[in-house]
Every structure is written in structure tokens, then in C-alpha cells.
């Protein structure tokens, strides 16, 4: 009897083991490739954030050894919606969350606390300041990402080359997002080196931006658009008010060049997205832990100049800039 019981138990354990193996195999497609579920939270729609998403998708589509099931949800600029999306992705038990912009990333990190779901962020100026990671070199936890910190000194050099006599730079920022406030502080620290004074306007809603731009245009020599999502989404309103008073608008990124910007020594959000795709791949396929992967930054920039805007504003393009520029036609 004992032998029969032991034999039956062994058979049951063997079948149970076979059942678990079958469950694991369900993660693989018919061609043997494993499928990973990625949830993308995008804070709002505008070209830079769209490009950060498209760059990741482009990178992962180029990988032939795995498949990626990507679900994209947009918070439409609402932090509460971002929180809801993040919680839903956790409930859906995705394999990784890719969060685009600071508030979306904060929502993702908060929602995944206590879980093993990794977060890869993008379009965040400083992950430490935003309380996403412990440090950029050793993020810790289960979070890492790609910073869109603009090369501010390089851009101030560009503005000085364009406008040798300029004294004041106007800056608009969203008082509700850490990215903008941080960049304004950084530019203020650098400004004296280039003999600039910074005149800043904080806003709390998109509807306030046109008024802020009009006020600045009457008091500064140019406006510099930082990588602040609310501000970038309203670029056309800013250039409309500024250019009407012959005030040029420069930018940290090129997504809105055709909206009346004069120039940008620009980071590429598509390339930042591709960098994030590489990080996500390392975590999902190569088994790396997110918290062990240093936060990356932009590897290079491209100078874009809008010739038509330069002509309209009567601004001569310096030869030193024209030699390395990519010209944008409206």
C-alpha cells in the first residue's frame, strides 16, 4: 500500500511539474519568442513626448529575439489621470512601465512601490530632484531612465552668438512641475557668465502662457523655451506674441521649430526614446535590474535654424552657426 501511495504521489508531482512548465510556455509565441508587456504612460501630447515614445517603439521593433506588446495611454496633462493609468498597469501586471515626463514618472514610481515591476522614465530633467531615483549613477530600487537635461551652457552660447548685444532672456515655466523650476535655476546660475539677466514668469495653466509671453516680449531681448511640457505645448502662442514684437524665441529642443522658433541647439527626443528602448531591453531580455543601470543623458545635439523666422525678424545668421546648422523651412 505504501509503495502504491508513494508511486501515486510521485506521479502527481511529475504532472504538477509538467503543468507549471506549460504555464511558462504560454508566455512564448508559436515561433518560440517570449512576449513582454510594456505599459506606456505619456503625460500629454506634443512632438517631443511623442518622439520619446516613438523612439522606444522603433528600437524594440528592431529586435528579433523577443516580442513586445505595448499599450499606450495618455494622461492628457492631468496628474490624477496619470495616477489612474499607472495603477491600472500595475493591476494588469505589465512587465515594465515606460513613463514619459516627470509627473507621469512620479505616478509610475508611486504605483509600482512594493511590486517587482520596473519603471524606465524619459523626458525628466533630474530624476533625483523629482524623487524618482536615489542618484543618477546608482538609481536604486527598481527605477532608471533617460534624462532630457538640455545642454544649457551650449544653448546660452548659441543665443549670445545670435544676439551679441542682448541683455535679458525671458523664461516661462510651469510652477507645478519640478523640471521647469530646476532649469530656470540652472540657467540663472549660468547667465552671468554670458552677461545675461534672466526675467522669469511662472504659470499654472496653459491659458496663462500667452499673457506671460506678451509681458516678457515687452521687457526682454529674446525668450528661451525650456523642456517644460506645458510651455512646449504652447510654443505657437509664445512665438506669436514674441515675434509680433520682433523678439526671437529659442528652444531647448526642435519639436516645435516650425511653430516660429528661431533656433535650437537641440537634443533629439527620438534618440532619447531609442536610448530608453535599449535600457528596457536590457531589463526585460537580458535580466538586468533597473536600479543598477545608471540614468542616461543625451549623447549629442543638432543645431536647427529657421531661416524664414530669421528673415522676418531681421536677424543675420552668424557664419559660425550657419556652418554647422540644419536649416528648417516653414
From TrEMBL:
It comes from [Clostridium] innocuum 2959. Residues 1-21 form the signal peptide. InterPro entries: ABC_transpt-TYRBP-like (IPR007487), Peripla_BP_I (IPR028082). Keywords: Signal. It holds the Pfam family ABC_sub_bind. PROSITE patterns: PROKAR_LIPOPROTEIN. This is ABC transporter substrate-binding protein.
Amino acid at each position: 500500500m505504501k509503495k502504491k501511495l508513494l508511486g501515486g504521489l510521485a506521479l502527481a508531482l511529475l504532472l504538477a511539474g509538467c503543468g507549471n512548465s506549460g504555464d511558462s510556455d504560454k508566455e512564448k509565441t508559436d515561433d518560440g519568442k517570449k512576449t513582454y508587456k510594456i505599459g506606456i504612460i505619456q503625460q500629454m501630447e506634443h512632438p517631443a513626448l511623442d518622439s520619446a515614445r516613438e523612439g522606444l517603439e522603433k528600437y524594440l521593433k528592431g529586435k528579433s529575439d523577443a516580442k513586445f506588446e505595448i499599450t499606450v495611454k495618455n494622461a492628457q496633462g492631468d496628474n490624477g489621470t496619470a495616477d489612474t493609468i499607472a495603477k491600472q498597469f500595475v493591476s494588469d501586471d505589465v512587465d515594465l512601465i515606460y513613463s514619459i515626463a516627470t509627473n507621469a514618472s512620479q505616478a509610475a514610481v508611486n504605483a509600482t512601490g512594493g511590486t517587482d515591476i520596473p519603471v524606465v522614465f524619459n523626458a525628466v530633467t533630474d530624476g533625483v530632484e523629482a524623487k524618482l531615483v536615489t542618484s543618477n549613477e546608482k538609481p536604486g530600487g527598481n527605477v532608471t531612465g533617460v534624462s532630457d537635461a538640455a545642454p544649457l551652457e551650449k544653448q546660452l552660447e548659441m543665443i549670445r552668438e545670435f544676439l551679441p548685444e542682448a541683455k535679458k532672456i525671458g523664461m516661462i515655466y510651469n510652477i507645478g512641475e519640478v523640471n521647469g523650476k530646476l532649469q530656470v535655476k540652472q540657467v540663472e546660475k549660468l547667465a552671468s557668465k554670458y552677461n545675461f539677466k534672466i526675467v522669469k514668469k511662472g504659470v499654472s495653466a496653459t491659458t496663462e502662457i500667452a499673457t506671460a509671453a506678451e509681458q516678457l516680449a515687452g521687457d526682454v531681448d529674446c525668450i528661451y523655451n525650456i523642456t517644460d511640457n506645458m510651455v512646449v505645448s504652447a510654443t505657437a502662442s509664445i512665438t506669436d506674441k514674441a515675434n509680433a514684437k520682433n523678439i526671437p524665441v529659442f528652444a531647448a529642443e526642435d519639436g516645435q521649430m516650425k511653430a516660429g522658433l528661431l533656433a535650437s541647439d537641440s537634443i533629439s527626443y527620438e534618440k532619447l526614446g531609442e536610448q530608453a528602448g535599449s535600457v528596457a531591453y536590457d531589463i526585460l531580455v537580458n535580466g538586468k535590474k533597473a536600479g543598477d543601470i545608471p540614468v542616461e543623458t543625451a549623447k549629442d545635439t543638432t543645431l536647427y535654424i529657421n531661416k524664414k523666422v530669421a528673415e522676418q525678424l531681421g536677424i543675420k545668421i552668424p557664419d559660425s552657426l550657419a556652418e554647422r546648422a540644419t536649416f528648417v523651412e516653414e
